[in-house]
Amino acid sequence: MKALTYHGPGRRTWGEVPDPVVRDPEDAIVRVDAVTICGTDLHILGGDVPEVTDGRILGHEAVGTVVTVGAAVHSFAPGDRVLVSCISACGRCPYCRQGAYGQCRGGGGWILGHLVDGTQAEYVRTPFADNSLHRLPEGVTDETALLLADILPTAFEVGVRNARVGPGDTVVIVGAGPIGLAAVTTARLYSPGRIVAVDLARSRLDAAARAGADEVLMAADDVDAAIRALSPDGLGADVAIEAVGVPETFELCTRVVRPGGRVANVGVHGRPATLHLEELWIRNVTITTGLVDTGTTPLLLDMLAAGRLDVSGLVTHRFGLDEMQDAYDVFADPGTTGALKVALFRT
């Protein structure tokens, strides 16, 4: 089969690799029908994730069809149409028993495209299939389901729910890329008073407005003062969600949040950020971090099937699977291409 493989910082190839096979009775082999590229894949290619070794197939998000299952797989059978989650879960370790699947200590967690071969291929081996695949409801397209493999549950769990977004809150989302836009979409489920999106790119701010942001701000402007002015009492945001993964955006979030406010970091950081405890300690600010657990994926799938979750507009570019290299080039240069999420389909 063909796959996208990593060969050190800045080096990737699309070419022939061995077909995956069942190695464990809990495995399933899934034919990839649709796949996407994540900002985390760009972090890997930038050298920010040293655990990824030479020759690893990248990717951790896909929609596909089950081809083969191991003897211990009971919930899925060949022919089933499934969502391949970015998180694998053994279902037995203490973390899994608490629903913290992202911290699985039984061989799961974020492993696809990281510690084991991933989804940017014609076929993928999915460990712990019973706990890590999701059967797709009728009427949900491959493209919309693809957005629930990672960005929607990540934005919802690590951003919106960790930050305890509530009715009437002023919510600032720093970064209007795919994760930031998913945060706008899922924050609206809690009826905040105002959602403010911040970004450097006008095209992404326009996308945030279409997704439901009430205000959009250029990051090059005096964002701190603008956010205070937009809050009802001038004290700043109740919630700030960091959706980029660079020191400047994290530090911006800690500046614009009000006393007693919450900062939820979602972005993947490759460099240290300064934590100004000398200023934050007296303001009762809560800061959360996290890797998605994907415990909300079934809920989000149900909402998507019921038409209660609008993800239109998140996919901006579409490719055939064998156009993987072109898709990476487009996704990696959003300032020029306007790319948000790219989707690649088996042809």
UniProtKB/TrEMBL annotation:
Pfam families with a match to the protein in the record: ADH_N (PF08240), ADH_zinc_N (PF00107)
Domain Alcohol dehydrogenase-like N-terminal span(s) in chain numbering: 25-137
Required cofactor(s): Zn(2+)
UniProt enzyme class: oxidoreductase
Gene3D superfamilies reported in the protein's UniProt record: Medium-chain alcohol dehydrogenases, catalytic domain (3.90.180.10), NAD(P)-binding Rossmann-like Domain (3.40.50.720)
Molecular function GO terms recorded: oxidoreductase activity
Annotated ranges, domain Alcohol dehydrogenase-like C-terminal: 178-302
InterPro entries according to UniProt: ADH-like_C, ADH-like_N, ADH_Zn_CS, GroES-like_sf, NAD(P)-bd_dom_sf
EC number: 1.1.1.-
Keywords: Metal-binding, Oxidoreductase, Zinc
PROSITE patterns documented for this protein: ADH_ZINC (PS00059)
Annotated TM spans: none
Family membership noted in the UniProt record: Belongs to the zinc-containing alcohol dehydrogenase family.
Protein name: Alcohol dehydrogenase
Origin species: Kitasatospora paracochleata
